[in-house]
C-alpha cells in the first residue's frame, strides 16, 4: 500500500483578544463609520441609533451576567460616548480634522483603560465571592466535624482547624488538633466515619498524621475517581513544552491530584499482571517523556516492538511526522545488544567529555542540547541473561550523566527482574494484581498495608516516587490516564518538532558507529517496503552497518574486542556496509566471513597453538586448539585421545545450525537441518539444557525467519551457554 500524502495543516480561525483590544476595535469601527458617512452623507441620527442599540444590548448582557450596577453604567456610557462623537463628526463633516481625530484618540485610550480595569475588577470580585462561598462551606463543615468527632468518639478539647476541598469536588481534607489525652482516633474510626457520612461505594476515609504531633488529617473521598475512565488530556494547554525535571504524569490519585513519577535521578519499575493496563500505562509514560524537549526516548521490546509501533506510525507509515518520535527501538535481541552497547559507551563518553559542565553539581544538567536518555524496556522476562547484565550496567552507572531506564515486567520477583534493577528503581508502579504478596515484593516499605481491593479496576494501580525533597512517598493508589492509538498519532505530530538529538560526545564511540544506520536495520523487519513513507528515506538511504556476530554466543560484536568470549576474532573486522535495506536480521561482515572460512581450511600446527590459546607453560598436550568451519566445532586438539568430548553431539550440531542461521532459529526449521522430528528435537534439547541448568529466556519463543514470526525456537547464546556449562562441568 502506498504511503499516504502528508496532510495539510489545519487552519485555526479562532482569535483570542483582550478587553482592551475589543475597545480599540469598537473605536476603530466608529472612526471608519464617521469617515465613510461624511463622504456619503449619512445622517447623524443613524450613529445615535446604533449607539443606543449597543448600550441597550450591553445593559441586558450585563444584567444576565449579574455584573455590578456601576459596571453596567460605565459600559453604556462608553457606547453613548462613541455614538455621540460619531454623530458630531457626521454633522460637521469633520472626522478627518486634527481636532476630531484628537478627541477620538483620547476617547479610544480612555475606553481601553476602562475596559481593562472593569475586567480586572470583575475577576477580583468573582474571586472574592468564590472565597466567601468556600469559607462559608468550610465553616459549616468544621462545625459538623467537631460535633461528629464528639458524638462518635466522645472527644473533648479537640479542635477542627480547617477543611480544604479537593480539585474536581471529589472530596476534602479535615485538619484536626487532637486533645493531649487522646492523641489518636480509635482503630475502627475509618469504618464509623464512613458509615456516619453515608459515603457511596468507591468513597472512603483515610486517616494520616499531620505535620506536628497531635495533628490528624482526615481525607474524605466522596467520588470514586478510580472507577472512572480518565482520558489523557490533549488540549493545546496540555501539550505545551515541558521539562523532564517536571516528572512524568501517569494519571490521577483518589483526590484528583496528578500522579507523577521522577525519572531524572532514578529509574522506574512498572509491573502488573496481564490485562491490568500495564502497556497503556507505559504509553502514557511515553507521552509524558515525549512532551518534553530535553529527553531522548529509546525502546527495547523484543516481542515485536509493540510499544514503539504506535509512536512510529505517523513517521514511518503516514509520513505526517518528519522525525521518528522514538529515537531507537530494539525489536530483536541482537538489536538490543547494539543499543545497550551504544548507551554504555555513551555513558562513559559523557563522563569524560562533559567535565567542563560539572561545576556546581556532580551530575549533568539536562538541556535540549544535552538531553536525558530514557530507555524503556517492555517484557523484560523475554531478555536473555547477558542482555540483563548490560541493562544492569546502564542502571548502575548512568545516573550522573542522565541516562535512566524504565523497566516493565509481569512481576517484581528475581526471576523477572534483577536485583540491581529493583534496588536502583526508586520510582515504582504496580498495576492491578490479584495477590497482595505481589505488591509486597514491589514496595518493601508500606507494601504490607496495601489492599489490592482498593484499586480493583482495570488501569488502577499503586505508585511511589521521590518527591521534591527526594523523599520516597508511601504507595498511593492512582488511575492511569487512558491513551488511544488515535491520540498517539495526533500527539506524534505535535511532539515531533521538539525532539532533541544526541550530542556528538555520546555517539563518538565504537558502538556509536551503528547508530546512524539503525533504522536501515530495523524498519525492514517492522514494515514492508511499500508501507514506508518518504519521510523514512533520510534515515535509510545510506549504507547500513551490521556488526559481526560472535560465532559461539550469537551476540553482536560492537567493539574492537569481544568482552563476552575470549575466542572471538581479534582484531575485529568492522562490519561492511550494504545497500540491501530489506535484508533481515544481523549479518556477519564479509571480511569476518573470509577469515572464518580461511581458518577452516588451515590446519593449525603446534607452533600456532600458543598464539590462539595461551598455555600454562606445559608441553604441547596442554595447548588447546579449536578448528572451526563457519563457527562449527569440527575438531578439538590438545587433549587426550581417549577422553570423550563432554559436549553432546546434538547440542553442538544445533548450535552450529543456529549460528549459521544468524543467531536464532525456530524449532521446526532447526529440526529440518538436523533431520529430526520437531517434537523429538525439542524434547531432547530440553533434557540437555536442563542437565546443566540452562533455561531459554522468556517462554522459549523467538522471532526468526522472513516473516519474523514468534514461534518456539532457540538462540545461539542459549546453546553456547549450555556448551560452556558442559565443558566447565567436565573440568575443561
Question: Which features characterize this protein?
Answer:
732 residues; alpha+beta; 10-stranded mixed β-sheet; 14% strand; globular
What is the oligomer described by this structure?
A: single chain
Helix content: 40-55%
Number of domains: 4
How many strand units?
Answer: 21
Helix run count: 21
Structural class: alpha+beta
Strand content: 5-15%
Q: List segments where confidence is low: pLDDT < 50 over at least 5 consecutive residues.
A: 1-14, 568-641
Strand order of the largest sheet: 6-5-14-13-12-7-11-10-8-9
CATH architecture title of the largest domain = 3-Layer(aba) Sandwich
For the sheet with most strands, the description reads:
10 strands, mixed
Could you state the CATH homologous superfamily of the largest domain?
Answer: P-loop containing nucleotide triphosphate hydrolases
Question: What is the CATH fold-level name of the largest domain?
Answer: Rossmann fold
Distance between the termini: 56 Å
Describe the overall structure.
With 732 residues, the protein is α+β, with helices and mostly antiparallel strands. It has 4 domains: 20-127, no CATH class; 154-223, no CATH class; 237-509, P-loop containing nucleotide triphosphate hydrolases (Rossmann fold); 541-729, no CATH class. Helices cover 40% and strands 14% of the residues. The protein has 21 helices and 21 strands. The strands form 5 sheets. The protein has a 10-stranded mixed beta sheet with strand order 6-5-14-13-12-7-11-10-8-9. Helix 9 (385-397) links the parallel strand 10 (372-377) and strand 11 (403-409). The longest helix has 56 residues, at 98-153. It starts with 18 loop residues before the first helix and ends with a helix.
